[in-house]
Model the fold of this input.
Amino acid sequence: MIRVRADGNITNRLVSITGEQFHHLIHVLRLQPGDCVIVTNRGDMEAPGFVKRITNQSCEIETGPVTAISRESPLRVVLVQAVLKGDRMSWLLEKAVELGVAKIILVISQYSVPRGDELWRERKHCRWQAIVDSAARQSGRTRSVPVYGPLSMEDIVSDRSVTTRLLLSPDPRSILFSGLSAPTSPEIWLAVGPEGGFSKEESARLVDASWQAVSIGTRTFRADTAGLVALTLCQYRWGDF
Done:
């Protein structure tokens, strides 16, 4: 069943879908009048609906009674991910959403490629948020997953608002993920570097800022895989897997 996201009240009313989501529904998914959909309102509510009318710029959907439903994990995992190249970044974002990530913060590290200027960052952010929004709808999530950044490493180091902060590290001296104690709060921040990891200086600064270096095993993971493995482990140990 195709899922549609709308703002505000979605109970027994006519909702109008415009913009990029409208384009995707009509020109990619080929939605037609009379087709049935599920409408969510960026919260823990969803309602059945059907396409009543399609114009050049909007799709109008008649909804029925709402049902309260939550597919969110009790554990809020915030993925702090160094920017990767091309399709690997898109794939990682999509899969992180499917695995239940609550928020994504992208960073430009010393080894990030490409780095880009301000205009490049703005355009990329819009594209990455669109990928995440689409993945959230397709995986049946009722809440939005915000994407922030790309930010600088300084922004990450200076933020000490969260108690549990984990830094994926290739250092064999790091504690294994299986040896971690349960977090003291329902939110975990998980930092993952680019291909080759964060630089020694960046890792040292994060550790000095109370990030705990952890390992996910003796094998070497690609940058677009490591964070997903760690996210899965978090959900398995303390989330809803």
Q: What stands out?
A: The mean pLDDT is 90. The chain has six helices and 13 strands.
